[in-house]
Amino acid sequence: MESRLIRLLRAVLPVRDLRQCVQRLALGWREVAPAQAAIVSAIRPGELRLVGAGSSVDSPAFFIDGEVAASGAWSDDDVLKALLAHAEFPKFAASPQLVIPFISSGEPQGGVVLFGASPKSPPAEGFGELGEASDRLLQQAISLDQVAEGRGDLLVPDASRLEALAEFAAGAGHEINNPLATISGRVQMLLKDEQDPDRRQALSTIGGQTLRVRDMIGDVMLFARPPAPVLTDIDLVEVLDEVLGVFSSRRDAQGCTIRLTVDDSVPVRADKTQLSVVISSLIENSLNALAEGGEIFITARAGGQAASEPSALLSVADNGPGLSDLERQHLFDPFYSGRQAGRGLGFGLSKCWRIVSNHGGRIEVDCGSSESVCFRVLWPIPG
Amino acid sequence: MKENGIPTDALESGKRKALVVDDDEELVELIRDILEADGRFEVRVANNGFDAGMMVKEYHPDIIVLDVMLPDINGKEVCQRVRSDSSLDDVKIICISGMVEQDKIGELRDAGANDFMQKPFEVEKLVEAMCALLDVEPVTS
Fold first, then answer.
1. Cβ density class A62-86: b for 16+ within 10 Å, e for less
2. Could you say which of B27, B103, B122 has the minimum Cβ distance to residue A227?
């Protein structure tokens, strides 16, 4: 479900403009409130987060068309009054559309009010709706970047958490391999002299399982300590074609369709093997989610989403059942699999995150609809 | 035989001298058993990098089976030290480790390791790799 705040945002103004708008307002802030300006200038746009409105703001400064309307310590009532009184300001023939507090390090530091371009009445209930929507934001803490990109429920992997998991996994992986080598080796030696078929079978099973653990640890290590990418300039479309070839029989067996919207050529700078792993993992993830007749939509575009972003875009979406709250929370965790326990290792997306990060790219998931999930990868281009 | 039970000259017995270095004693014993069962190797063991360094000079093995993650100095350093001593040029080194990072494995080879095997390994593959390095005919089973 798209949050109400996002819907409000979409209704209010072209959302891509929001970021500029906030930045412009923040510049105005610098002139009048040095202490807060220091905070604002210390916040890089990617770190700026939106949280709540009204009561969550300790010391909001309100801006209208880039000018400070008021600043200082405001109570809820003051905020409401100011907003309602705003209609009486002939100079500002527009209604308040959105209250955006700034927070830094989890603390509210102030806020801005955005105003629509055309005059509207600012009824109290309108503010109530904004406040309610903002309260949802308090819980979700959606980053400004995501809103500015005009997208809904966007999931971005928690890098610090994944790094911690990787650190743990790498340490555990190394330690487990030693006893595993002893078990595996002893089993092989016992097998050499064992004649009894049942006992041979049992020993073979033990040996086979140690290899299974070894492969799991190998996957863990690829997530935790992957080889440094060997970068070359390659065409993402060519790699995509190769990977699609590998999946063709499984796609047909599952009765799924893969629809492509792909530029003729999408130059990227990448380690080809690792890029293949990312594409494979995303397609596999979608196939796993789909029932017979499901569809996967793959987009590959040169130039990413915005002209200003020097990256290529790869997106893999499907019309599967969407993500549960739990799945959203653990989507990129190693060993987390949405499927039945024991089926699949749940490593695909962990590896994707690691590889994309190592390439200096970005991966995010749009799960705005309950009936679709879209993975977007922004990949660096040659250059 | 010497008093300590170690053959005085491995070449006399036709056996090749192997030094197994790993801090995991169970694993060291496993490799010792594997090599002794094979019958073509005389085996000594060390559990850390320091002992390994001492024994390389004293024992002058034909081959070192070297764990990379040792408690004191790491396997890469052991490789470098062996390779910096020209009197040990003929010593072959095969590293064993749980690591799967290709760049780290590359570093080991750069430091002078002749081969690398990932833990857990296939017993026969280890013996085959050692035989290949020592130009010893592998046993056909």
1. bbbeeebbebeebeeeebbebbbeb
2. B103
Per-residue pLDDT band for A277 (boundaries 50, 70, 90) equals: very high
Please state whether the predicted TM-score (pTM) of the whole model is above 0.90: no
CB contact under 8 A, A227 and B27: no
d(CA A380, CA A375): 16
Nearest CA in chain B to A230: B103
CB contact, 8 Å: B134 with chain A? no
Q: B60-95 pLDDT, tens per residue? A: 999 999 998 888 888 889 999 999 999 999 999 999
Rounded to whole angstroms, the Cα distance separating B129 from B126 reads: 5
Which residues, 6+ apart, have CB-to-CB distance to A382 below 8 Å?
A233, A267, A268, A269
Q: How far is CA B27 from CA A43, A183, A243, A266, B117, in A?
A: 53, 9, 40, 50, 14
Q: What are B14's two structure tokens?
A: 């036709």
Identify whether the C-beta of residue A109 lies closer than 8 Å to the C-beta of residue A51: no
Alpha-carbon distance of A317 to A303, in angstroms, equals 19
CB A92 within 8 A of CB A64: yes
In a 13 Å sphere around the CA of A149, the CA atoms on its Cβ side amount to: 21
pLDDT tens for each residue of A195-211: 999 999 999 999 999 98
The whole-angstrom distance between residue A153's C-alpha and the CA centroid of its chain comes to 9
- E-strand spans in B38-131? 41-46, 63-67, 92-97, 115-118
How do residues A208-230 score in pLDDT, each as one tens digit? Answer: 999 889 888 887 887 888 888 89
**Amino acid present at A136:** R
Range list of H helices, chain A: 4-12, 16-32, 34-42, 76-86, 124-140, 144-148, 159-193, 197-224, 236-254, 272-289, 325-330, 348-358
DSSP A192: H
Altogether, the residues listed in chain B come to a count of 141
By C-alpha distance, the chain B residue nearest A218 is B100
